[in-house]
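Work Package 3 (structural annotation) set out to generate three-dimensional models for the target panel prioritized at the project kickoff. During this period the team completed the workflow that converts sequence records into discrete structure tokens, so that structures can be stored uniformly alongside our sequence database. As a representative example, we reproduce one entry of 126 residues exactly as it appears in the project archive.
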Amino acid sequence: MGFPSPVLDFEEKRVSLDAMCITVPSATYLVRAAATHWRAGIMSGALLVIDSSKRPCDGSIVVGTVQGTFRVLRYKKFPEPHLEEIDRPERQFSLLDDFEDDGVFGVVTWILNDARSGEFDDVPVM
């Protein structure tokens, strides 16, 4: 019998993407992005983690429905609550007028891009 190893004081927990990315499993959805949205850092084919239990704050990236189709949009509070296209902010959708049964489905909490493409690399290595 001896003393416990001092290494055990520095033991780290195992990394779990489920524990890190999913807070409410019953309200979390994983969706593949169909298009690239440069301003939001979303590449085509990126995995979006959407939480439908969270309320969006000003500037949040959300998945909303416009005329019955799901779209990745940005939520803005001012001057009045509305959604706008990420790549064309001048194209806005009022939450009061344009949405009858439509609205915000959920908030994008995580964006998982494939880093192998190098699309966000400022200094590409040749």
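The mean pLDDT is 85.
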